[in-house]
Every structure is written in C-alpha cells, then in structure tokens.
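Reopening this one. Same input as before:
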Amino acid sequence: MSNANSLYQYGTLAMLVPGLFEGTLQLKELLKHGDTGIGTGDGLDGELVILDGVAYQIDGDGKVNELDGDFSIPFGDVHFANFEHLANVHALVKMEDLEEKVSSKLDWNNVFYSVRAHGTFKSVKTRSVHKQSKPYPTLVECAHKQNEFEAEDVEGTVIGYFSPQIFNGAAVGGFHLHFLADDKSVGGHLLDFEMVSGDIKVQKLDELVQKLPSSNDDFMKHDFSNDDIAGAIGEAE
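Same output, byte for byte:
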C-alpha cells in the first residue's frame, strides 16, 4: 500500500499518444493504491473520477456510471486522500484563475500535488470520448471526435493533479483536472468552469510510484521515438 504522500500512476500519457489504449489493469488492483484519482478505461472508454474509494466513468454520451472492480484501464492516477485546506471561494473563479490561485500560493512547481475543489459552479464544460476499437486511432484523432457537455448551476467536485514539466509525457505537465457533479448529472475531463463558492484543498505528493504494463506486447514493442508526445498531449489536453 502506498503512503499518504505517494502518487501511484499506472501507465503513461505517452502510451495513449499512438493509441495504446488496451486496458491492462483492473480497477480493484488500482484501488489498492489510492481512494482518489482520475483515469480512462479500456479502449479510451470515457473519463474516470475516483472519489472516496468509489470509481465513476463518464462515458462518451456523458452518462455517469459507477464501476465495479473488474473494469480495466490503460492509465490511471490515484492516491490516498489527505488534503489540506488552501482557500475559500466567495466570488466567481474561472478555471485558469483557480490554477493560477493554487500555483501562486504554493512553491510546489517541481513536485506532484493533487487539487480538490468542491462547491457551486455557475457553469462547467467537460468532455469525454466513446470507447475505441482495434486498430486503435491515435489520441489526437480521438480528441477531434470528443463529445462536450455543459451544465449550469451545479454542485460538484474538481479533482486532479499537477505534474512538474519535467514529467510531461509520463503525465500531463501542469494541471490535469476532471469533474463530477454531486448528483452525478455531469462530469468528465474539464475544459472550463466558473466556480462561485466553495473550498480548494491540496495535497503534496513527493513520491511517484510508476507501474508499467510490461506484460502487454503492444506496449513492450512500440517505438516511441517517432511519436510527437509533447505536441499530441498539448493538442489533446
């Protein structure tokens, strides 16, 4: 079991760039390493949010589904929640404002940390994609076919991670945030939001445990030297 300051990551973002989407780890194994996190499913099957030990999938139609332990993933980030209060929100805060507020209050640019913001949102805009079939397309091709969802006046949770730029590729350098409404009406990978009240919490994660799918032949044989990993992640995210 990981400690409270440890980020457990299965797979890498770089794997998804050329379309290595096969689910090679079951959720019940991932959840041994954390009760909070984000990820995606087998075949890039939707966006995942894990809160309080429960995993939810926001599928390509925007429906929120509670997952069982047999659901498999190619990529996921989890940790055990031990957040500290950072700030209260009393006025409208946009997504870029929240990211700036968090980073300006912390001197944590070169470590991983998790962000959790819960409250009332004037608006949220999220995205997800439908499950892909082999032969898998690339991540950028999937991003061009993403489905976007919008909601107004919703209570919910922003959850995600900040990764140092030196780890861009293994993860998303900078912020990678997902959203889940309290009533499970909307969620997904966050594109934008306006938060009007609530609180922001953070948790420093100074240990990275990286697990790679070494039993997957496609991963083991793939040559990443020809992939524009940074460019693809920037375009897709």
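So the earlier flakiness isn't reproducible anymore. For the record, The chain is about 15% helix and 45% strand.
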